[in-house]
Amino acid sequence: MLSQHLFANDFIRGKVDATLFTKEVAGHLLIIQIYVDDIIFGSTNEELCKDFEQVMKQKFEMSSMGEMKFFLGLQVDQMPEGTFIHQKKYVHDVLEKFGMSETAPMSTPLATNHGINPDLTGEKIDETLYRSMIGSLMYLTASRPDIMYPTCLAARYHSSPRALHMSIVKRILRYLKGTPSLGLWYPKDADFTLEGYSDSDLGCCKVNAKSTTAGCQFFGPRLVTWQCKKQTSVALSTCEAEYVSASSCCSQIMWI
């Protein structure tokens, strides 16, 4: 029903993202993004935003929240120089939820030689608690690529977590305690050159010796996508692992 209403008002659905709609009027662009029953929108012409509000209220019972400051756990600070996206409030909520508010902060989210492994003989811990902590951290990776790798590493052991794995998760939380305000900065005035970076470890997984691919893509100084995933095959050398990672990064750039 929502889609048909937008089509009737001359909106065009995105070719890749089916929840993205755009409309161009006299050289000005209106973009709307839908998440279930929440909508964020913006335009190069403020009048188009006002018109869109009326279009939606004609068909649905909706309320306009004004300038976006908070959306699905993301805090959005819009400034003349650019936009800053972070999850400071969510970080504090997570620390409070898991009783880590008073712990001493750490300078890094993961030790260089962390030695994380299945640890089948280690002390078992509460699986429900561990999975809840992992889920909270995964949601934080929406604005915190700096915790993506250690969080994904810890998530591999959610089926049978041990005390060793819990210590890794708590270190990530202690790192967040010291860096609650970090986020993504999107400056208004800068170039839009598309750049990609890739990296990998070699055989880090202690279960099947698979390597991990990491990558990130930028428009100028703006970080737009990032990845961290275990490779599907076993690399026999650092060079091979790096090629697999670079291939994944190139695929993402071509998609963008």
What does this structure look like?
A hairpin with a 2-residue loop joins strand 3 (28-35) and strand 4 (38-43). Helix content is 34%, strand content 25%. It folds into three domains: 2-66, no CATH class; 85-178, no CATH class; 190-255, no CATH class. The chain has helices spanning 2-8, 46-59, 88-97, 127-140, 148-155, 163-178, 238-255; strands at 12-13, 20-25, 28-35, 38-43, 70-71, 74-79, 82-86, 183-187, 194-200, 212-219, 222-230. The protein is an alpha+beta fold.
Task: Indicate the topology.
Blueprint: H1 2-8, E1 12-13, E2 20-25, E3 28-35, E4 38-43, H2 46-59, E5 70-71, E6 74-79, E7 82-86, H3 88-97, H4 127-140, H5 148-155, H6 163-178, E8 183-187, E9 194-200, E10 212-219, E11 222-230, H7 238-255
Helix pairs in contact: 4-5
Short description:
The chain is of the alpha+beta class and 256 residues long. It contains 7 helices and 11 strands.
